[in-house]
Every structure is written in C-alpha cells, then in structure tokens.
Amino acid sequence: MSKVIFIKFKNNIHIFFLVLPLFIIIFNSKALGWDTFSHWLPLANALDQSSEFLLRGHATNYPFASTLVLVFSSIFVDGISENVSALFSFFQLILIFELINYTIQKNNSSANNIFIKPLLVLFIFYNPIHMNKFVYSSYSDFDTSVAILISTYLLFQFFSNHENKKLWISISVIACLIVGLKNTGIVLVVFSMMIFFIISLYENFRNTLKTYLVPLILINIPILLCWSLWQYLLHVNNMREIFFVYDFIRNDLIVSFFKNIIFQINERKIFYYFSFIIILLAIFRPKILKVDKELNYYVLFYAHLFIFWFLFLVVTFIFHFNSGILNNATSFWRYNSQISVVLLFLFCLLFSNFLNYKNYFNSKKLVNIISILILILPIIFLYKLRRDLEPRYLTILDFSKFQNKVNRALVISSDSSYNAI
After folding, report:
1. How do residues 41-62 score in pLDDT, each as one tens digit?
2. N or C: less crowded end of the chain, CB within 10 Å?
3. Does the global pTM surpass 0.90?
C-alpha cells in the first residue's frame, strides 16, 4: 500500500507543488457564513458532546452527514476544528481531479499528462462554474454536488454494464449519502433515477424494462429506507417540515422574485450560460456529438437535471419559503450550485475532446504559462479564498467565553449577511 502511494505521489509531484500554495492558504481557515454559525457548528458541537443533536442549532430538521466531518476532527484536537471543512473540500477537489483525469485518459490514451494535468488543476481548483465563497466552508452544497457527480458517473457505468452488482451497491450507498447531506437530497436522487430511466427508454425502449427495472428497484430500496427512517425520526420528535407552506401564489412578490433570478443568472454567467449551452447541445447532439456514447449520455443527463432542478427550486421558493426569501430569491444560485460539479465534469470532457480534435494535447508551449498562473492565483484571490480574514470572526470557543454575559448581538456588514456573523 505504501509503495502504491509513493508511486502515485512520484507521478504527480508537479501537481503537488502546483496546489501546495492553495493548501497553505486555506489550511487555517475559520468558520464562514450565517448557516455555519446558526446550525452547522452548533449541530457539530452537539454531536461531539452528546446525542441530543436534534434539539440543537437553528435548522433542527436538517440531515447531518456533512456535519460528521466536523465532529471527527475532535478525534485529533480538543473540540471542533473549524478549518476541517475547508480541508475536506480541498481533498474533494483532488478526488474530482482524479476522476476527471482518469476519464480523459481512458477515452484518450494519447493525452499528454504533462499538459492535461496542470490544465485540470486550473479548471478544477479555480473554475467559477463550481467554485464560490461557500466551497471552503461548512455549507453542504459543495459536498452534495460532489456526491451527485459520483452518482452520475456510477449511473453511466451502470448504463454500460447493468450486470455489475458492485455498481448497484455503490450507487445505492452514494444515493443514501446524498439523502443524508440535504433535506432535498431525496429530490436530487429521484431526479437522477428518473433521468437515467428516460435516457434508457430513449436508447432502447423495448429492453429497458427487462434490463434495468429490477436492478433499479433493488438499488432504490436502501435509499427509500434511509429517507423513511429520517422522516420517522423527525415525525416522532415533531420536527417534520411541510413543503407547501403557502397554498397560493403571492402575486405581489413574483415579479421581484423572477427579476432577482435573472440578476443572479447574470451574476453567475459561466455556470448558467454554459448550462443553457448544454441544453442546446442536447437538442442538436446527433449532429455535433455523433456516436460518442459517453458524451451523449452526460449531455442528456445534465440537460434534464438542470431543467428539473431549476424548476423544482422555483416551485420551492414560491410555495415554501417566506416572503423575504421569495422576494430576494435568496441563495437561489447557491441551491443551483448543488449540480455544478456535474457541469464541471462535462465541461472538462468537452474541452478535452476539443483539444484532441485540434491536436493540442501534445503542445508544450502553454504548460509553463498555466503552471505559473496556477502558482500566483492563490495570491491574487487571497481575499476570495479567505473571506474569514475580514471582518473579525468569533469562533465557537470565543463565544463560549461570553456565556451568560451577552443577551443580544448586532451584526454590521457592508456586504451580504452571508459574509459575516
């Protein structure tokens, strides 16, 4: 095992030095964001100290899978380590790097590692498609997005080899994790299974039921069991959440809501515009992608997933959230980002195909420029990577010193309340 790790490290020594500055910068990250202080850290502290996690924090009905990462940090230090979320996100980005690099190398063995790996580091660690201020935080959106990517990848492997029972187990386990990460995780899982079935029907209508129906039923049994157990736990503790809080459309807020959605789309141009391009690509894929089975599948999958998820969020905001959140479309883009890593994966595959078509894989001219750019980017984006440096943050340990001494707290910030607490 140690020999394998050594060989892996030796083969990627240049990548290690490329990401080292970024690792050093985020290593000592502090907690960030309103939700972190309102429920993620209180939940982690409660899990660390007792089993009464359901009664702690602001959002007591939230699943707690991502919080376990914070809890396990207490094994190595006294109490909860606030930087562990940033470090965990960093290692998840490495996992994404390995998965995308493996997929590209599998599809194109002639791809030059010396060129493609630095390019992937640039795309994966600094790409606004999926990178935002909450990636290196305790927010579970990025964790969910990574899990969705893995489930999407496994579903394609299942699509290509439906008899592999290990894949059945893997898909089921990852889907259970998604259910445990977000209270809307079950929706993402249902959408993923629906889209898989739709694509299968389109590819081979006659054999789909015979080929995939029984495996899909077996895959979904543990998923539904996990979700049902969580719902039962919420029910017996009187903490179940009603989805349709409002049974009418609040017409006075709808116009403002959609205006703010359009504003956020234009603020997050790369994610949304490229998503729209993928939808168009799905429509015209027979002429553009031709016989590439893998790209055809991923393009179709993401196009459906984006449309389903976007519409679900619109319905959720209109009928579930309070007037303030609806009026401002608060965090609409952040909820959309839960599928952003799948878009990143698709972007990298399409870009690698373009490079292969233009025969740029063996070009050595850009390697040094890309490497230098990667090394200086952490310095250029220091504030964006370490938003905890401004303003002054109080850690959970700092707050504990003021127990019974502070009745009220006032938060003042020139930016969104999500940037300071």
Report:
1. 877 877 777 766 555 545 667 8
2. N
3. no
